[in-house]
């Protein structure tokens, strides 16, 4: 069985913060979806949310702020799943709550070093 990374992307301006109740309802959708993958024993890494601030390190030790404001899409988090193929991983991704806010999910195979 292979491992795949699900990278969650969204337009950082399109997602309003919402009330505490709305945030709790959204979190429940995410936990239910991830819990469904875990119940199938296909969750390889529970993943995490990512902060909105960051740094980019380039050659010659050049460090700049990031993510860049001119980029609309923001990587918000990730999980790793176990699947036999891209097709199986894609089927698991179909129920992701990121789609409810206009976001998308990138799937990448994890290649062991």
Question: Can you tell me about this structure?
Answer:
The protein has helices spanning about 20-40, 85-95; strands at about 1-10, 45-50, 55-60, 60-65, 75-85, 105-110. The protein has a single domain (about 1-110), classed as Dimeric alpha+beta barrel (Alpha-Beta Plaits, 2-Layer Sandwich), CATH 3.30.70. It has two helices and six strands; from the N terminus they run βαββββαβ. Strands 2-5-1-6 form a four-stranded antiparallel beta sheet. Strands 3-4 form a two-stranded antiparallel ribbon. Helices cover about 25% and strands about 40% of the residues. By secondary structure, the chain is α+β, with helices and mostly antiparallel strands.
Percent strand: 35-45%
| Helix percent band | 10-25%
Structural class comes to alpha+beta
The total count of strands amounts to: 6
The main pleated sheet reads as: 4 strands, antiparallel
- Using only C-alpha atoms, the radius of gyration works out to 16 Å
Count of helical stretches: 2
Q: Low-confidence runs (pLDDT<50, min 5 residues)? A: none
Order of helices and strands: EHEEEEHE
Major sheet strand order: 2-5-1-6
Number of domains in the coordinates?
A: 1
CATH architecture: 2-Layer Sandwich
And the CATH topology? Alpha-Beta Plaits
The CATH superfamily is known as Dimeric alpha+beta barrel
Q: What is the terminal-to-terminal distance?
A: 16 Å
Q: Tell me the name of the CATH class.
A: Alpha Beta
Average pLDDT works out at 88
* Approximate shape: flat
